Amino acid sequence: MIQHRRNRILLLLALAFVLALPAVAQARTLSCRSDPVVILSNGTVLDLSAEISTLLINVKEVHYVLHVPVGVSAIAWIHTPAWLTSQETFTIIADQPPNTYLASATAMTRDGNATVTTHLLLLSALGVKLDYAAASGPENVPIWVRVAHNKPLLGLF
Known about the structure:
Order of helices and strands: HEEEEEEEEEE
Oligomer: single chain
Distance between the termini: 85 Å
Largest sheet: 6 strands, antiparallel
Shape: elongated
Number of strands: 10
Strand content: over 45%
Number of domains: 1
Helix content: 10-25%
Number of helices: 1
């Protein structure tokens, strides 16, 4: 009788432990980050990133679309190092007013259920932070952000 009661208590404790596990597992979300940098012909630096709620091995592609000011072009793209199983692709369109930048990131994963947060940091040629924006949404959908900086920094822009 005592053995039977002890087994029942151990079973209840084990069940309580198992039921508590999902709450603990959800508290620690695994994610990876695509973090390319684009240097533009007007001296502006766009630090892009897409934070994706999955492991890097699950990411197939991150595609960025950049809308930059008319007359501005990309002179250098610095891809995220160590993205061996995934690719970063870019489309750039020069159709914005001066000092206005619009960007989206679309992530595609093997699982198909990740959340994506797009970050866009606008820096001067000297590395001074001019503006920042972020937005989140589901994968396979462009997540758009917009930044603008209308005050020239030391007459450089």
